[in-house]
Amino acid sequence: MSRSVKVAVIGAGVSGLVAARELTRERHNVVVFEKNTRLGGTWLYTPETDSDPLSLDPNRNKVHSSLYPSLRTNLPRQLMEFLDYPFCRDIERVDPRTFPSHEEVLRFLQEFGDEFGINELTRFETEVVKVERVEDEGGWVVESRASHGGGVSVSREVFDAVVVCSGHNVAPRVAEVCGIEKWRGFQMHSHNYRVPQPFQGQVVILIGYGPTSFDISREIGLVAKEVHVSVRLNPARKGMKFQDFGNVRFHPVIKCINEDCLVVFEDGVTINADSIIHCTGYKNELPFLETDGVVTVDENRVGPLYKHVFPPTLAPCLSFIGLTELESVFPVAELQGKWVARVLSGKMVLPSEEEMMKSIEEHYQFMQQNGLPKRFTHYLGPSYSQVCIYTHFTLVFNPP
Ligand code: FAD
Question: What's the whole-model pTM score?
Answer without folding.
Answer: 0.93
